[in-house]
Amino acid sequence: MTASVPASAPATTPQVARPTNRIVASPLARRIAASKGVDLASIKGTGPHGRIVKRDVEAAESKASASLPSHAQAAAPVSGGGSRSVPHTTMRKVIARRLSESKATIPHFYVSMDVELDALIALRAQLNALSSDEGQDSFKLSVNDMLIKAAALALKQVPEVNASFTEDAMILHDDADISVAVSLDDGLITPIVRAAERKSLKQISQEAKSLVSRARAGKLKPEEFQGGTFSISNMGMFGVKEFAAIVNPPQAAILAIAAGKRQPVVSGDEIRIATVMTVTLSVDHRAVDGATAAKWLSAFRSIVQSPLALVL
Amino acid sequence: MSKQLSSGVAHLLKKAKVPVFNGYGKLDGTQANGRRKVLVSQDGAAPTTLTAQHVILATGARARVLPGLEPDGKLIWSYKEALVPEDMPKRLVVIGSGAIGTEFASFYRNMGADVTLVEVAQRILPVEDEEISQLARKAFEKQGIRILTGAQVGTLQKTATEVHIPVTLGDKTETLVADRVISAVGIVGNVENIGLEGTKIQVDRTHVVTDSLCRTGEPGVYAIGDLAGAPWLAHKASHEAVMCVEAIAGKTVHPIDPTKVPGCTYCRPQIASVGYTEAKAKEAGYKVRVGRFPLIANGKALAMGEPDGLIKTVFDAQTGELLGAHMIGAEVTEMIQGYVIARTGELTEAELAETIFPHPTISESMHEAVLAAYDGALHF
Ligand SMILES: Cc1cc2nc3c(=O)[nH]c(=O)nc-3n(C[C@H](O)[C@H](O)[C@H](O)COP(=O)(O)OP(=O)(O)OC[C@H]3O[C@@H](n4cnc5c(N)ncnc54)[C@H](O)[C@@H]3O)c2cc1C
Questions:
Q1: Which residues on adjacent β-strands are paired with residue B77?
Q2: Nearest CA to ligand 1 atom 35
Q3: d(CA B187, CA B61)
Q4: In a mutational test of the pocket of ligand 1, which residue from B108, B182, B233 has the highest number of ligand atoms less than 8 Å from its CB?
Q5: A173 is a catalytic site residue
Q6: Contact (CB<8Å) B254/A48
Q7: Which of A94-98, A229-233, B17-21 has the lowest mean pLDDT?
Q8: CA B88 to ligand 1 center in whole angstroms
Q9: B222: pLDDT strictly greater than 80
């Protein structure tokens, strides 16, 4: 019997290596340590037989953060000019938490492109001329309304960007629900134009107007600013040359729109003047790769530069 | 049975060579060498003086007496008389729906009495998770117990054989008539006449204030059990006793975390819980994930003819910590220890989900209630 056993047999017996300096910690302690970036090897456990338990990790973490200067201290001016502390509003806390979380957990990358606006501006003037002067049917399209629709159409063309990354799977969204960043006196909020790809410019314009005014009045319902599959942040009105925004999780991308400016453009061997804006797409690299981001920006640029698709 | 159990304890004490002095004990200052004196008196004889380096106070608690509801031992009972009734009341009113009141209401209803349970809070079993309270109420009402919540009881009026109980519900007052009343409105610690006066031992609302190792403000004096902090439960008292003595003996001990002490109510259906209720978890700032599994979807519970019940889990959405578990239904008092072990051992939802529960048992529902908080239960 023994003789017939292949020589390699013992090696197939499962052997579990037992490291000598094994860290003994509860599953909960391990998980909290991993999420807070606490090194278990540096902690002394106070549980049964020196097991590291939740309270040990929490104690280590609060010790670590206590030994760092707090942000408030770091921000205090060293000059003798004095300073005052303004307590945070709930909105400020939410902004701080969500954006830190985004920057800390999402691997961002950024892709920029120049987009000419003249055709879109001309179309806008034509369309606005069709509006009745006042009443229910009147409308006044803004460039931003048209860019919301352009982004939504581009998401239809490159649906990989209309996505959310989760540990187990990529969630691909059917509708392009566009979160539009609106600045407020004490922060910002992102009301959502839902299924913007299916709405007319007039609808988008009226909806966006109502959302923005209710956002400024603090009257949005939660479902009007929670959710959304893609964000737009437009700082054109501030004359910004270009900027990059922070991804709004669980969305995969946000488009930062800078001011359109008349400038010389080289086309073929000619120099002509065009209204150009720089847009920057910030992307969650876990969800979207560089080539896809570039493809999306090209689609967006084509739509903006040949804007008739917006009124189809 | 209880005689057998207490003589068993006496035997264990003898075996461990623990001398027992029967009598009324009282702290009596310190000796010159710093040892504490305890006077033990019995039947008016001259007290015996014992001295010790360490003294553990464990005088327990007694039923709280509210003015107008004073137990008389005949028509108006405290738990003492209710535990050893001479005859079965036909009409019983139980005042207070904590664990004790609820147990008596359920027991006497099972014995055939007409029972009304009166509670001043808006729901019965006010410390349990709200959903459990609701299900308990439904089950009791189905059994014919009348339940009045948000109810204020006025001064009881007695005749020779009956008690009249004025109950105010909102703007209506109704007078209940009963053969017996059980007053179960809480407990108070036995802090009087045990020599606490003039010491550094602090008393807060009839209970001795202690630190996490049962130490009082007076060095060498400890307090455990119902005399000390909540929860007022036998297993907490006994765990504290072990911990306190081990700490005195210089061993490494771990303080009791009240959120890891299970609480059981032995009514029908049974109720058992540990840790945070959903509401308390939210109040404490946790973002929670809640799992529910109704026993009607469990084969064993169905086969036993006890399909009414619910297992509910509350997890910290951020860390997967099992913050609390709440159960109502058959055998839940036997099963809660599973969640207590999970909580004490700091298991997360991942280990619980990977645990294989035996089939066919009611305990499978505990597994399902974990899955339900995350990816969804398999059988519901
Ligand atoms: C009706 C009822 C049902 C309950 N059901 C449960 C249950 O199902 N599960 C559970 O866990 N808990 C239950 N409890 C609670 C449980 O009984 C108590 O938590 C537990 O008994 C507390 O233990 P202890 O040692 O602190 O106090 P006790 O058990 O009250 O013991 C104190 C002892 O000290 C004696 N004593 C008092 N003063 C002195 C003195 N000066 N000198 C000497 N001796 C003194 C008392 O006579 C008493 O024997 C129930 C309580 C009641 C009333």
A1: B182
A2: B59
A3: 6
A4: B233
A5: no
A6: yes
A7: A94-98
A8: 25
A9: yes
- Is residue B29 left, alpha or beta, with left meaning phi > 0 and alpha meaning psi from -120 to 50? left
Tell me, in angstroms, the distance from the centre of ligand 1 to residue B60's CA. 5
CA distance A239 to chain B (A): 41
Asked if B346's CB is within 8 angstroms of A53's CB, the reply is yes
Chain A residues bordering chain B (beta-carbon distance below 8 Å): 26-29, 31-32, 35, 46-48, 53-54
The ipTM is 0.86
Using alpha carbons, select from A149, A263, A137 the residue that is nearest to residue A195: A149
SS3 label, residue A208:
helix
In short, whether B233's Cβ falls inside 6 Å of ligand 1 is: yes
Please state the rounded mean pLDDT for residues B215-234: 95
Contacts of B253 in chain A (CB under 8 A): none
Chain B residues in contact with A36 (beta carbon < 8 A): none
Q: Tokens standing for B159?
A: 């005749």
The residue whose two tokens read 């460039």 is A143
Q: Higher-confidence residue: B27 or A215? A: B27
The helix or strand, by DSSP H or E, that contains position A170, with its residue range, turns out to be: strand A170-172
DSSP string, B323-356: EEEEEEETTHHHHHHHHHHHHHTT-BHHHHHHPP
Q: Determine the Cα–Cα distance for residues A260 and B265; give it in Å rounded to an integer.
A: 71
| Closest chain B residue to A31, measured at CA | B319
Using 50, 70 and 90 to split pLDDT, how confident is the model at A65?
A: low
| DSSP-derived 3-state class of residue B348 | strand
Cα(B189) to ligand 1 centroid in Å equals: 10
CA distance B191 to B196: 7
CB contact under 8 A, A35 and B318: yes
Question: How many angstroms separate the Cα of B108 from the Cα of each of B82, B91, B95, B117, B134?
Answer: 10, 10, 14, 11, 21
- Which pLDDT value is given to residue A66? 61
Q: Count the neighbouring beta carbons within 10 Å of the beta carbon of residue A93.
A: 12
Ligand 1 atom nearest to B193, measured from its CA:
41
For the ranges A81-90, A246-255, B97-106, the lowest mean pLDDT is seen at A81-90
Position B174, amino acid: E
Please give the structure tokens belonging to residue A94: 């939410």
Nearest to A27 among B254, B318, B348 (CB): B348
Chain B contacts of A47, Cβ < 8 Å? 254
Model confidence pLDDT, tens digit, residues B30-62: 988 889 999 999 988 899 999 999 999 999 999
How high does pLDDT run on average in chain B?
A: 95
Residue B193 gets the label, from left (phi > 0), alpha (psi -120 to 50) or beta, of left
CA-CA distances (angstroms) from residue A18 to A21, A22, A23, A24, A42?
9, 8, 11, 12, 20
Structure tokens at B372: 């339900």
